[in-house]
Amino acid sequence: MPSIERIYLGGQRQISMKTRAMLAGALAVIGLITGCESIPPGAERGPDGTMAYLVQIESSPPEARIEANGEVVGTAPLTLKIFGDPDGTFHDFGSYFYIIRALPSQTNHYVQTATFRTGHLLTPEDRIPKRIVFEMTQPAPAAPPYYEPGYYGPPVYYGPPVYFGTRIYFGPGYGHRWRRW
Fold first, then answer.
1. Measured CA angle at 145 (ends 72, 82), to 5 deg
2. Is the pTM of this model over 0.70?
């Protein structure tokens, strides 16, 4: 009769409880990081994991020409398809803003602009509206608000070069050569 010790079958070792706990923890972390796809069923899919949102654009008076990011998309009233993140915010396609402009069709009217933040380089992002109404008779603000991201880059060092690490002496010889790594 075998004793109550560990029995090795076919050269296999038993896995300890600590190893099992570490494997379970690693699988849980991988599951949390990867997440799951959260685009609702039936929604139109777009590039980079986005989905389509329909935004109604109106102007008062009607027939204003509408531009979205510099492209003419039609005259108001119209429905604009915007590809955004599944959580309802604008997707970062490489610019800080998504800009919609309404150009007047009559004299004595003003250009109207709606600016939305896209979340580029960890800046805040705005939600995609369901409806935008432009009032063409309102004058533009005196100075449009200019948004600068909060990142200015690393500070610039103007002193002599700085070396980190230990000194290594290569010698003997004429003049000592010191290297820092």
1. 35
2. no
